[in-house]
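Researcher: Final request for today, and then I'll write up notes for the group meeting. The sequence and the SMILES for S-adenosylmethionine follow.
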Amino acid sequence: MKGQEWYQEDDVAEAYDEKRFSRGGRLIDRREKQAVLDALSPVKDKKILEIACGTGRFTTMLADRGADIIGLDISGPMLQQGRERAQAAGVADNLEYMRGDAGRLPFPDDEFDAVLSMRFFHLADTPETFMTEMQRVSNDQIVFDTFNRRSSRLLYNWALPMGSHLYSETDVKQLLAGANLELVNAEHDWIIPYGFYRSIPNTLASGIRRMDSTVVSTAVGRPFSSVSYWEARVPE
Ligand SMILES: C[S@@+](CC[C@H](N)C(=O)[O-])C[C@H]1O[C@@H](n2cnc3c(N)ncnc32)[C@H](O)[C@@H]1O
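Model: Predicted protein-S-adenosylmethionine complex:
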C-alpha cells in the first residue's frame, strides 16, 4: 500500500492540512465534516473508532462534540500532527491516538458503535480486508468515502505520487455485501475535482462550488460525481 509509506515522512505530515484544506480546499474540509456529522450524529458518548485518522481533523471535531473516540493511523508523523491539533483545540484529554494497521485492528469484535474512515479507501490495495476489519469491530455503523472511477478524478489520478484506487457504485456495493454490511445512505458530490478547488482562492471557489453542487444534484450530473460518502450498518 503506497499511501502507507508516503505518509511516514515528517514533511508530508507537516504540510498535509495546509496543502489540502487552505484556499478553496476549506470548502472540501467543511463538506467532509458535514458528511461525517450527518452520518454519525448525535455523537455525544458514542464509542467511535476513526481508522487512518491522519492529522485528526475528524477525531478532534468528534471529541469536541463529546464522542468517546480513538484515532488510529499507521503513521507516527501524522499522529504527531493530530496530537498537536487536539492540544490546540483543548480536547487532548478527551481522545486517544493509537498507531496501528487498518488491516489488523487491535480491538475485540463489536467494540465500537461506529467506525469511520475518510480518504482511506483510495489508498487501499486490499479494500476487502479493511472493510471486513471495520465490520468486525463495529456493532452498528460504518462510515467512509470513496473517489469515483467515472469522474474528473481520472484526469489527474495518475499524477498522485501515492497512487489512488477509484471505485464504481457497484464496487462499493459488492464490498459492503462481501463484509455483510447493509447500505443505509450514499451521497454523491463534487464534479469538479478537489485539486481544482485547492488551487484557487476561497472567495472564487465558493461561486464555482455553488454551480458544482447544483449540477451534481441533477440526474445528468450525478453519475460524474468524483466523491461518494457512504453510511452502512451491521445487520441486526
Ligand atoms: C489521505 S490521508 C487521510 C487522513 C484523514 N483521514 C483525513 O481525511 O484527513 C490517509 C491516511 O491513511 C493512513 N494509512 C495508510 N495506510 C494505513 C494502514 N494500513 N493503516 C492505518 N492507516 C493507514 C496514512 O498514514 C494517512 O494518515
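Model: The chain has a mean pLDDT of 93. Residues 1, 3-4, 7, 52-54, 57, 73-75, 78, 101-103, 118-120, 123 surround S-adenosylmethionine (CB under 6 Å).
Researcher: Thanks, that's everything.
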